[in-house]
Write a structure and sequence with these properties.
There is one protein chain. This protein has about 70 residues and is α+β, with helices and mostly antiparallel strands. It has helices at about 45-50, 55-60, and strands at about 5-10, 15-20, 30, 35-40. It has a two-stranded antiparallel sheet. β3 (about 30) and β4 (about 35-40) form a beta hairpin.
């Protein structure tokens, strides 16, 4: 299982490598570049599943989001 994901801000393009929690989905992330609050869009469970280079651990394990 991969625990690092690169989040890319859709507003400014800033990228940051983040460690994903293994016991829950992360619903928000504040961009370090422009301050935009990233949140999942409909159909995605967390910010990593939409803005990240790697989907969250629960999805990687086919357990669904918590």
């Amino acid at each position: 299982m991969l625990l690092k994901s690169t989040l890319t801000c859709p507003k400014c393009g800033h990228q940051s490598v983040e460690t994903m929690p293994t016991n829950a989905c992360q619903f928000f992330h504040d961009c370090e570049g422009c301050g935009e609050r990233l949140k999942p869009l409909a159909g995605d469970c967390c910010v990593f599943c939409f803005y990240g280079s790697v989907r969250c651990p629960p999805i990687q394990e086919n357990k669904g989001c918590r």
